[in-house]
Design goal:
single chain, about 325 residues, DNA polymerase, domain 1, 3-stranded antiparallel beta sheet, elongated
Amino acid sequence: MPPRRRPTATSSSNNAVRPTDPSQFLAGFVHYLKAECGLSENTLKAYQRDLGRFMTWYRDHGPARIQQVDLGLLSQYLQDLHTNGYAATSMARHLVSLKMFFRYLVLEAILPESVVELVNSPKLWQHLPKVLSPEKVDELIAAPSGADRLPLRDRALLALMYATGCRASEVCGITLRDIQLEEGYCRCIGKGDKERIVSLNPVARSMVEAYLQHERPRLAKQNDATSPLLLSRAGKRLSRITVWKLVKRYAGRIGASAEVSPHTLRHSFATHMLAGGAEIRALQELLGHASIRTTQIYTQVDHSRLKSIHEKCHPRG
């Protein structure tokens, strides 16, 4: 079999042009990244993995010449990633790898321009958080009843999670000294041991107070300030698994989706705060997000909610 040659700009579309396998340029690309861009070994390996996946897919679905790659083909590739369960963040990383590779091909005059630059990150496939309506949250908080072993504790737990936006691990870590009922705030420790102060609404304050008066005294083995607020039946700190099971139980009781989890209350807190006029920077502080980009997902949730309301209520929706 004769060796492959690089197609030239003067080649006619009627000429017998050998297929151009983009993998033949991968070694040069990696050398370029290492020698001229100074990237680390881990970053280089990540690019190689992402592009290796693309090369494998390209052999079955790509055109004869890499110069023929268009937006339609790239969309098919992103759809293939999505179909195979890749998260939006992973898809975005694959897209960055492709953009870098095609920029290199332009620098080497293999391509006149990079069509990949026209592709946006796959936001359409980003999974938006599940959110409960305020009315459904009220139902959830009221779901624990006298038939349950510790209904006051469970109501306090659910009310705290919604009032503060705390993660399950954060609410489990709240101690007696972290709760300031008279002042109406709570101190919690988030990721990276970062401390933040969050307000308690009247519902959460009353639920916590009822639990402290009527249930916690018979569970507690000690009552110093560093003792956990929320206790198990054995008088130990409530675990994340227990919190997850409790939320699932009460969500099922009110007929909520099976996808509801402790994080749903955090998402609901953020979405309802934003809908009520909270500034995005303030919401970032309340949620304990290190990056504003993480918080901005809730603007998409709210826009999605408003769009559905518009379609439902507008006479021409």
